């Protein structure tokens, strides 16, 4: 097992989850508390994923939420994980994230995806673009140009935005995103936390076709991250029990029964019909649930197996306090360098 100082960086994927009995305001307050905690603990990044029309996730206005989190954190990088670019004008995305970079400095990443992040009717209401690979790649290139150095001949400019050079990441759950990331020379994050089937093929395509000489290249070698469902507790029994909330969430998503996150249950089979049980396994095949030592060992094995440069983990529990505890136990076992308690809050107020 690698020593702690050789472990890859750990980051957090956040969707501002809402549990049964919580208001949207409650959920956003819990998300803010979590951001402050993982900032203090020493996680590398916190990314917010765009979702629309969801009963469970309050992360629709991603850039607004990131601006709020920037005010309440100090050192953690923040970003989108991601912005679903076909839902937006590249110019408007450049203006939003350029404004964030202008206000808060070099703390932001722009993770870009093609998925709708919602159901078909809501996607249509968003006036969504095609999402086809060629159109998507062109939008990414346009977005990067808006964030690049000012051009005297440019007739359309992102102000604020130009000159901020907000780093771009490509997100994907298939070989399509990998192809775009490789062709444009961008770092690539694979959504193995909910769609792991093509992880090997996607990374193979990305590494084989990576073009460091592309005009849009931001890294000089293939740079990879992957998502993992994680839940850490003092005992395996408690971790398995708490994780039933995440399993119920996955079943609701896959079976079209939207609702806020359910309380955990002792026996999943008593509340879920047998024909729906495989949905949780398919949605969360890449998961590490257990005690700190067990989860750390499995994360290290996963990172080594796929030759990852970084891991991004996501945790869902009914009780927000248990979610923060999970991230704290993982940070301690991973050997992160935490800041003194209250440091982030002090920095945010300064």
UniProtKB/TrEMBL annotation:
Q: What is its EC number?
A: 1.-.-.-
- For whether the record's keyword set contains Phosphoprotein, the answer is no
Q: Name one GO molecular function term.
A: oxidoreductase activity
Going by the entry's taxonomy, the superkingdom of the source organism is recorded as Bacteria
Alphabetic keyword roster: Oxidoreductase
Q: Which Gene3D superfamilies match?
A: Luciferase-like domain
- Pfam family, any one: Bac_luciferase
InterPro entries documented for this protein:
Bact_Lucif_Oxidored, CmoO-like, Luciferase-like_dom, Luciferase-like_sf
Annotated Luciferase-like domain ranges read 19-303
* UniProt key word Magnesium: no
| Family to which the UniProt record says this protein belongs | To bacterial alkanal monooxygenase alpha and beta chains.
Q: What is this protein called?
A: LLM class flavin-dependent oxidoreductase
């Amino acid at each position: 097992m690698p020593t702690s100082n050789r472990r890859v960086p750990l980051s957090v994927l956040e969707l501002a989850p809402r549990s049964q009995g919580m208001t949207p305001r409650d959920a956003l307050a819990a998300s803010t508390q979590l951001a402050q905690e993982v900032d203090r603990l020493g996680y590398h990044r916190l990314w917010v994923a765009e979702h629309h029309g969801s009963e469970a996730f309050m992360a629709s206005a991603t850039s607004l939420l990131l601006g709020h989190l920037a005010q309440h954190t100090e050192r953690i990088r923040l970003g989108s994980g991601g912005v679903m670019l076909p839902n937006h004008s590249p110019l408007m995305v450049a203006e939003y994230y350029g404004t964030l970079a202008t206000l808060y400095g070099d703390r932001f990443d722009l993770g870009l995806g093609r998925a709708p992040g919602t159901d078909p009717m809501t996607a249509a209401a968003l006036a969504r673009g095609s999402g086809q690979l060629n159109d998507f790649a062109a939008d990414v290139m346009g977005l990067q140009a808006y964030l690049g150095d000012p051009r005297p001949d440019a007739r359309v400019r992102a102000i604020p935005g130009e000159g901020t050079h907000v780093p771009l990441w490509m997100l994907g759950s298939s070989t399509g995103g990998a192809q775009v990331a490789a062709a444009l020379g961008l770092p690539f994050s694979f959504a193995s936390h909910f769609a792991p089937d093509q992880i090997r093929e996607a990374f193979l395509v990305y590494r084989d076709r990576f073009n460091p000489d592309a005009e849009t290249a931001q890294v000089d070698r293939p740079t990879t991250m992957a998502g993992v469902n994680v839940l850490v507790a003092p005992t395996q029994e408690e971790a398995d029990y708490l994780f039933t909330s995440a399993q119920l969430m996955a079943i609701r998503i896959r079976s079209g029964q939207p609702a806020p996150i359910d309380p955990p249950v002792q026996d999943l089979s008593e509340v879920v019909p047998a024909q729906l049980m495989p949905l949780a396994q398919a949605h969360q095949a890449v998961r590490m649930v257990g005690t700190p030592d067990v989860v750390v060992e499995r994360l290290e094995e996963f990172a080594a197996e796929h030759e990852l440069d970084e891991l991004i983990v996501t945790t869902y529990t009914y009780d927000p306090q248990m979610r923060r505890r999970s991230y704290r136990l993982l940070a301690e076992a991973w050997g992160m360098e935490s800041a003194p308690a209250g440091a982030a809050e002090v920095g945010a107020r300064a």
